[in-house]
Design goal:
alpha/beta; 5-stranded parallel β-sheet; binds iron/sulfur cluster; 38% helix; Rossmann fold; 334 residues
Length: 334
């Protein structure tokens, strides 16, 4: 019955599409079965949809980009399954993505979901048990197909119902990339991004800053996360951190993210140097320290007084300062 029915109404599927080679191949394998595939990719301040956008264009896959920042941040603060090596809550993150993709599947009346996951490729997050936990917690267990490893996994609902031909799915497992390379060649896919990378939560330096933000500012805003991507971050004390540009790009980003009624922006008056930002302001004593740190990274000569211009809202304060000692500041860098 199912088979006949499917011939009249074309089967539809949602691909959780990262744009990496495995997700491209998974999409190809499913598309080959004459199934309508729509890609879905999620974005947050920690990962974007650029790679997915390029890859989808390359293989002619319609792609829906969904920003999930609002629901992602609370999960990131207390992930049920904890973090990976850095601040990456991969199991919870993946569960959330599958759950949201599942909702999208229902919304558009698609028949199933699939991902480019390969059994055993990442020992921690792609072993049989992790794949099962993620599928179960997403509440769409049974509807989630992993075309690249499907033959090694329990049959899913679309396979049982004859919407997908299990015989044409793959049995890839492990960390080797040989089979994927061969498939890429067969499909004529020559350009693709490396499998790793793209998620800031796996970056040790970014993760350290994010942890510091979580520990010191419970009511942080998205712009506080955006600030973590630029400059040096120097924690002066429990209440105050300053962000100092390392180059023009950082300086422009910091200036753009500053909020004139809340933050203090510090620059040296007579010497080229960085833009320094004290988010949410600080008291006078701390501002003196921030000004001396700003002087350190500027062209102001060591051991000579220089003027730092500190701006908050309409107010401008000039502080005479000397460059802080590099070894003292080094200890404060997050
Ligand atoms: S690497 Fe980043 S985007 Fe990927 S599952 Fe982990 S937290 Fe999510």
């Amino acid at each position: 019955m199912g088979g006949k029915f499917n011939k009249i109404l074309k089967v539809k599927a949602i691909a959780l599409f990262s744009g990496g080679l495995d997700s491209i191949l998974a999409a190809k394998v499913v598309q080959e079965q004459d199934i309508d595939v729509m890609g879905v990719v999620f974005e947050t301040p920690f990962f974007d949809a650029l790679r997915a956008g390029k890859a989808a264009k390359m293989i002619g896959l319609p792609l829906l980009v969904i920003n999930i920042t609002e629901e992602y941040i609370p999960m990131l603060k207390t992930p049920r399954y904890g973090y990976g090596r850095n601040m990456n809550p991969c199991i919870d993150c993946h569960t959330m993505m599958l759950s949201l993709a599942g909702k999208k599947m229902e919304e558009i009346g698609a028949d199933f979901l699939f991902t480019g996951e390969v059994l055993g490729q990442r020992p921690m997050s792609q072993n049989k048990q992790a794949l099962h936990i993620v599928a179960k917690n997403s509440e769409y267990d049974g509807f989630i197909l992993r075309p690249l490893s499907a033959k090694l996994l329990p049959e899913t609902i679309p396979e049982t119902e004859g919407k997908v031909d299990r015989g044409k799915l793959c049995d890839i497992q492990g960390r080797g990339r040989k089979r994927q390379m061969e498939m890429a060649k067969e499909y004529g896919i020559t350009r693709y991004a490396s499998p790793a990378g793209g998620c800031l939560l796996t970056d040790p330096a970014f993760s350290k800053r994010l942890r510091d933000l979580f520990d010191h500012r419970k009511d942080f805003k998205i712009r506080d996360i955006e600030l973590l991507k630029s400059g040096r971050h120097i924690r002066i004390d429990e209440k105050t951190k300053i962000v100092i540009g390392r180059n023009r790009k950082d300086n422009a980003a910091i200036r753009n993210l500053s909020e004139e009624n809340r933050d203090i922006v510090i620059e040296m008056k007579h010497f080229p140097g960085p833009v320094a930002l004290a988010p949410y302001g600080c008291d006078d004593e701390t501002l003196d320290r921030a000004a001396s740190i700003c002087a350190l990274y500027s062209d102001a000569p060591d051991n000579e007084d220089a003027i730092a211009e500190c701006r908050m809202a309409m107010e401008v304060k000039l502080i005479s300062t000397k460059a802080a000692k590099r070894e003292d500041v080094k200890k404060l860098i997050i």
